[in-house]
UniProtKB/TrEMBL annotation:
Classification via SUPFAM superfamilies: beta-lactamase/transpeptidase-like, Penicillin binding protein dimerisation domain
Official protein name in the record: beta-lactamase
Domain of life (superkingdom): Bacteria
Catalytic reaction annotation: a beta-lactam + H2O = a substituted beta-amino acid
Annotated InterPro entries: Beta-lactam/transpept, Beta-lactam/transpept-like, PBP_dimer, PBP_dimer_sf, PCN-bd_Tpept
Top-level taxonomy: Bacteria, Pseudomonadati, Bacteroidota, Cytophagia, Cytophagales
Family, as annotated: Belongs to the class-D beta-lactamase family.
Domain Penicillin-binding protein transpeptidase: 250-576
Cleaved signal peptide residues: 1-20
Native species: Hymenobacter defluvii
Class of enzymatic activity (EC top level): hydrolase
E.C. no: 3.5.2.6
Domain Penicillin-binding protein dimerisation residue range list: 52-213
Keyword Metal-binding: no
Length: 606
């Protein structure tokens, strides 16, 4: 019995010591003020200022998105009297049918689906006054504050507030691309959500029984009102550019090369900016999600394609820098090397090579670069090709290619530039020759660039070798753009070698050049540009164009890419120069009005 008692006593003693140690530890880690006086209580006080979400404005301070009251009319779908509805809201029969089709996600099959219509203040007043006298039953008119778009343009820029896009998310889940769109289509509303929302301020006092404060138990937070976003976008130019592309597949990016500010950002096919969050656009959203042309894809940032002949600018700059060619170097148009689609005189200089976009010229320029054999590798031409391709890639990558530019766009794609190791693996040997990679010389094959990279590439040429990262927001409140957009980046290529490209780019839009019909010389504007026609094994070729104006003092740089549109000179170049003229002059010269109507007609498919 003595032994048992001793063991029990020992266990009790150890348990008591453990509890005492835990109690001591708790006291040591608790708040010092509370330990000194346990009557202090923690309080959390919300700063009383009301929190408002910031607005989105364009570069001219026109409000594009704001939080405002919105009138909603809710009514049951079953046994709906469309005639009475039209009479109540003063809508004709066509308008009623169209509004119903837009509002219902699955057409007539959804007879139990409740319908919501956005109403104007005038229409809401009619409902309040006359609804009781109609045959319509169970009408519910509500008013709520929601993000309101004052423009239909710029959907891919403005984006949407996630909290208001829940109906879209539910619809998107039913498609294979649902998760893809949810993560990538939020625009500046999502990218700058924290700054637009702001945050509450909180005080954290320690208070005694008499209400006296004795320090704080946590760090106070400062109230921050939601900040306005001042975009780099010119709303009028954005709307005009969207008319140029409208229902076509492709993109247009226009930016100010001096600052990196994006002036217009079009992802086509286009759709109204309010569509994703509007409560009466479920049917339109269904069409967008199911459309084979993928209008919800943010093409300029997320879709990387072979750039075609516009990439000859980069290859020429690299070849000049590495000593493979001189501005005066000429090559004959040898069709046995690669097909040349233009019939032109001999390209006896780089200027002529660019003017005529001669494929054999750039084939041979790139061949000079890749096949050079330095003395140190005289006995190993394969190793020399590896070294030269790696060197080419290093200089080309300094344009911001094969990496994200860091634009304020969600999920920006990096594009792709092949490495020697890539060809070793894809060709199954390290002894590949230039003939197996020559498509690089004309911007085809494995090279892939995004629209942002294309626009930034031509901005670099306009600036003679430097750039600021492209961005959509020029000011958050009064603080200017994000710090990274103020950092100047330089390429590895000398400014003199960029200057050597300019005569050829100007010649592209002069008599005999590939885009001579797109000249703006009649209004005193000299455009420097480069056309591109991208071969496409799955259908019609893609059309591309990059350029800037005025050539001697660039204020706007534009990149256009139209899928399955044919020649860059006839499809992409006209869109680009019309946007340039609109921005620089504010209007289109009468000489090009017919041309303008033709581009818009193609865009709408009429």
């Amino acid at each position: 019995m003595r032994t048992v008692f001793t063991i029990q006593g020992l266990l009790f003693f150890l348990l008591f010591v453990g509890l005492a140690a835990c109690s001591s530890s708790d006291q040591q880690t608790s708040d010092p003020a509370q330990a000194a006086d346990p009557t202090y209580t923690r309080q959390r006080i919300v700063v009383s200022d009301s929190l408002h979400r910031g607005r989105i404005l364009d570069r001219c301070d026109s409000v594009l998105v704001d939080t405002r009251p919105q009138f909603l009319l809710k009514l049951p779908r079953r046994l709906l009297d469309t005639l009475a509805l039209g009479q109540l809201l003063d809508w004709d029969s066509v308008t009623v049918r169209q509004r119903l089709a837009d509002a219902l996600p699955y057409g007539l099959a959804s007879t139990g689906y409740p319908i919501q219509f956005r109403l104007t203040a005038k229409e809401a007043a009619r409902v309040r006054r006359d609804s009781s006298a109609t045959k319509l039953q169970k009408l519910v008119l509500t008013q709520r504050r929601q993000r309101v778009y004052t423009t239909s343009a710029g959907a891919s820029v403005l984006g949407y507030l996630g909290a208001e896009a829940q109906a879209f998310y539910r619809q998107a889940k039913r498609t294979k691309r649902g998760r893809f769109y949810r993560l990538r289509s939020g625009g500046v509303e999502t990218y700058y959500n924290g700054l637009l929302t702001g945050h509450w301020g909180y005080l954290h006092p320690l208070v005694d029984e008499q209400g006296n404060q004795h320090g704080t138990w946590a760090k106070d937070t400062v109230f921050q009102q939601g900040q306005d976003l001042h975009l780099t976008i010119d709303a009028k130019l954005q709307a005009y550019a969207e008319k140029m592309l409208s229902g076509r597949k492709g993109y247009l990016v226009a930016l100010d090369p001096r600052t990196g500010e994006i002036l217009a950002y079009v992802s086509a096919p286009v759709y109204p900016a309010s569509t994703i969050t509007a409560p009466d656009q479920a049917g339109v959203r269904t069409q967008l999600l199911q459309d084979a042309d993928m209008p919800l894809l943010n093409r300029p940032a997320m879709l990387a394609n072979p750039p075609g002949s516009v990439f000859k600018l980069v290859n020429a700059a690299a070849a000049l820098q590495l000593g493979a060619i001189l501005p005066t170097t000429g090559f004959r148009c040898d069709q046995s090397l690669v097909r040349c689609v233009h019939h032109h005189p001999q390209a006896n200089s780089l200027t002529m090579g660019l003017k005529y976009s001669c494929n054999p010229y750039f084939y041979q320029a790139m061949q000079q670069l890749i096949n050079r054999v330095p003395d140190s590798l005289a006995q190993d031409s394969a190793a020399a090709r590896h070294v030269n391709l790696a060197l080419w890639r290093r200089y080309v990558r300094s344009f911001g290619l094969d990496s994200v530019l860091g634009a304020d766009v969600a999920r920006e794609a990096p594009g792709f530039l092949p490495t020697p190791a890539y060809y070793d693996k894809s060709r199954g040997t390290q002894k590949w020759t230039y003939r197996s990679i020559y498509s690089l010389s004309i911007g085809q094959g494995e090279i892939n660039l995004t629209g942002l990279q294309m626009a930034n590439m031509v901005a670099i040429v306009a600036n003679r070798g430097w750039y600021y990262p492209p961005h959509l927001v020029r000011s958050v409140g009064n603080s200017g753009p994000l710090p990274r957009f103020r950092e100047k980046h330089h390429t590895l290529i000398d400014s003199a070698n960029f200057a050597a490209l300019l005569p050829g780019m100007v010649a592209v839009l002069q008599r005999g050049g590939t885009a001579e019909a797109s000249s703006l010389a009649d209004v005193g504007i000299t455009v420097a540009g480069k056309t591109g026609t991208v071969q496409n094994d799955e259908g019609d070729d893609h059309a591309a164009f990059v350029g800037f104006a005025p050539a001697d003092n660039p204020k706007i740089a534009v990149a256009v890419y139209l899928e399955n549109a044919g020649f860059g000179a006839t499809a992409a170049a006209p869109c680009a120069v019309l946007v340039m003229e609109k921005y620089l002059r504010g209007s289109i010269a009468p000489k090009r009005k017919r041309w303008e109507r033709r581009m818009q007609s193609r865009a709408t498919g009429r």
